[in-house]
Amino acid sequence: MNGIVGFLENSSGLYLNDTIETLERIHALQDYEIMSSIRRILVKYGMTTQQLRGNVNSQEPYEIKPRNTQDFSTSLLPTSYTRVS
């Protein structure tokens, strides 16, 4: 996964607080504000980057799962795929 969700779910996300502190130190203030906002949202909903990472680690290789099944309830696509060698 790419983007901020990928950052939060992979091992880099485990260093979210350090990343935010570093952004402030180097005066990357816009990025600092964005990442601080993301951390506040996680806290508001009781989520941690460790939990997000756990969601990824519990998946099977090449598995695709919709985050909100209501959004995909009429989808004709399967929710998981198996790699064929």
Number of helices: 4
DSSP strand count: 0
Radius of gyration: 16 Å
Q: Which regions have little confidence, pLDDT < 50, spanning 5+ residues?
A: 71-77
Strand content: under 5%
Question: Overall 3D geometry?
Answer: elongated
**Helix residue percentage:** 40-55%
Report on the biggest sheet.
none
Give me the strand/helix succession: HHHH
What separation lies between the terminal Cα atoms? Answer: 23 Å
Mean pLDDT: 78
| SSE-based structural type | mainly alpha
Model description:
- This protein is an all-alpha fold and 85 residues long.
- It has a domain at 3-59.
- The protein is built from 4 helices and no strands.
- α2 runs antiparallel to α3 (29-44).
- The chain starts with a helix and ends in a 28-residue tail after the last helix.
- Mean pLDDT is 78; it is low at 71-77.
Entry summary:
It is built from 4 helices and no strands.
Topology:
Blueprint: H1 3-9, H2 16-25, H3 29-44, H4 49-57
Helix pairs in contact: 2-3
Key features of this structure:
mainly alpha, 85 residues, 49% helix
